[in-house]
Amino acid sequence: MTAHPAAPSRRTLLRALAALPASAVLLGETPGLLGTALAAAPPNGSATRYTIVPFLNSNDGTVDVYQSDDATDFRLLRSSAYTPPANRIRDASVIRHTDGFYYVTYTTHTWQDPSTTIGFARSSDRVNWTFLYDYTVPVAGLSRAWAPEWFVDSDGSVSIIVSCSTVNDEWIFTPYLLRATNSALTAWSSPVALSGIGANHIDTFIVKTGSTYHAFPKNETTKYIEYATASNLTGPYTIRRTGDWAGWGSYREGPALVRLDNGGWRIFFDGYGDGNYYYSDSYDTFATWSAPAALPAISGTARHFTVVKETVTGGPSLARNVTRSFRSANYSTRYWQQQSSLLNLPVVSASSTTAEKQAATFTVVAGLADGSGCSFRDAAGNYLRHWDFRARFDPNDGTSTFARDATFILRAGTASGSVRFESYNYPGRYLRHYAYQLRVERSDGTDLFRQDSSFVPVTAWA
């Protein structure tokens, strides 16, 4: 539960404004939060789909629905998709349940008011929602129940983790677990407090890997997101990292994690002090993280969300072990062409020389790092890879670094028949032309970037 970022001083004084309570998710083939999505590139003809249902920075009475195929560039699917019949909707957490419906649970009041209920709604298509009920959280002396978050465990059980405060200290929150006692998600067990994280920790988001639960709570005293582990969902948790251990800075809240197609983990969090929403990636089981980057397009608009990841049909397709040429989607006379080992985008036509046509012809093969991705080989057997984010061709040296540099994940392009090529080891960066040179650049969420990074596979020039 967060207040408007334009008034951080009020939030500091009341401490309520940072209260984004506990959330949790188990990744894998569970039919819950992530559907059937795996940590691998989607197969030919399929696509990854990430869905978020944030409330608005300007309005906590409704939620929008956004989707993305890369967990970076989120695009609006439906504005004001759900407005509850009464009260507010904040901190909506979304799940796809085993019955095929999407469910959201949410905070029902604004941060200033006592709030003893959490709300529920469901949808068959993510854009049309039906109110189900408000549920009174049975915690003795309850003052506020904020930010309920779905959790699906490895045994298939469905729970909600909600942060609660009591009337004797309304701004000190403790995460509680409510377990669903029926498949309709209408009956809940008695609340059980999570142990070991300690007082004045909020926004606890948990992911499970193997038999270990990894928790990311926010320390409301220091304003840093911390890290803890436990062997049971309810704890006891041991806090392993404190302070600015991950390099995200302070005045960060609302952490939420999701597994990327290349196996890495991405954390999203709200930089409520500066108005941005950030992401950061880890590839060593949460030990180190990339420098935080602001999400394009939705920073300053979306507030407190969790992510549903699914693999869906209808994605882009590109045949392997065939030769193709690649035409720019927005400069229809220009094609990929190797020039002195670098990949550029010159004009190629029927009057081009045989050598020029050959340099604009490539063999598409299965990705060196992930067979569901793709790699590109020239006539000499060299592979397209990025080096200092410049696209170039080099011999395969057999290393895992080279394999990742030379693997790209197919994403849908902007024009009919076009595709985009996302870097396998730098998610959110795409092969994009600039000044007719091909580079691997970070998406800025604009239509121009999407057009510049879209290419049409066509019959090979040679």
TrEMBL record:
Gene3D superfamilies: 2.80.10.50, Glycosyl hydrolase domain, family 43. The keyword Signal applies. Residues 1-24 form the signal peptide. GO terms for molecular function: alpha-L-arabinofuranosidase activity. Residues 325-456 form the Alpha-L-arabinofuranosidase B arabinose-binding domain. Pfam families: AbfB, Glyco_hydro_43. Keywords: Glycosidase, Hydrolase, Signal. Coiled coil: none annotated. GO terms for biological process: L-arabinose metabolic process. SUPFAM superfamilies: AbfB domain, Arabinanase/levansucrase/invertase. The keyword Cell division does not apply. Belongs to the glycosyl hydrolase 43 family. This is Alpha-L-arabinofuranosidase B arabinose-binding domain-containing protein. It comes from Streptomyces paradoxus.
